[in-house]
């Protein structure tokens, strides 16, 4: 369970591979993929908080939880991951500047263009542990 916080962890000066102070939200509806993502995040030393649909992800944010990074699936069962991303971006600081990485099996040019237009990186499923470690390192410097 993620802790409530009034501000995101200050990770400046922390080595990219030392993410023990990071809190990462994983939004994924596929149980096996969610378990894999959670294991990789935990093995990297970060605190993993999970949501299996968009409503649960938004509830975490509404509860005042702050995250250092969000891995966000696009194809969620209740609402689109794009809707969750919009919700994150319209929230007041510090929520709105939370780094988000899109994870999706939808690898069309249109999906990639939407991610680019939204200013978020895109990882095509299936993702590897190396892909996830690289994304964590890239966003938590």
Q: How is the topology of this model organized?
A:
Layout: E1 23-27, H1 31-43, E2 47-51, H2 54-62, E3 69-73, H3 81-90, E4 100-104, H4 109-118, E5 122-124, H5 129-139
Provide a descriptive summary of the structure in words.
This protein has 141 residues and is α/β, with parallel strands linked by helices. It has one domain (23-139): Response regulator (Rossmann fold), CATH 3.40.50.2300. The chain contains five helices and five strands. The chain has helices at residues 31-43, 54-62, 81-90, 109-118, 129-139; strands spanning 23-27, 47-51, 69-73, 100-104, 122-124. A five-stranded parallel β-sheet has the order 2-1-3-4-5, sandwiched between helices. The radius of gyration is 14 Å and the shape is globular. The model is unreliable at 1-7 and 9-17 (pLDDT under 50).
> What string gives the helices and strands in order?
EHEHEHEHEH
Number of strands: 5
Q: What is the helix content?
A: 25-40%
Overall morphology: globular
What's the end-to-end separation, in Å? 24 Å
CATH superfamily: Response regulator
CATH topology: Rossmann fold
Physical arrangement of strands within the biggest beta sheet: 2-1-3-4-5
Biggest sheet statistics: 5 strands, parallel
Question: How confident is the prediction overall: mean pLDDT?
Answer: 87
Q: How many H/I helices?
A: 5
CATH class assignment: Alpha Beta
Identify low-pLDDT runs: 1-7, 9-17
Strand content: 15-25%
Gyration radius, in Å:
14 Å
Structural class: alpha/beta
Number of domains: 1
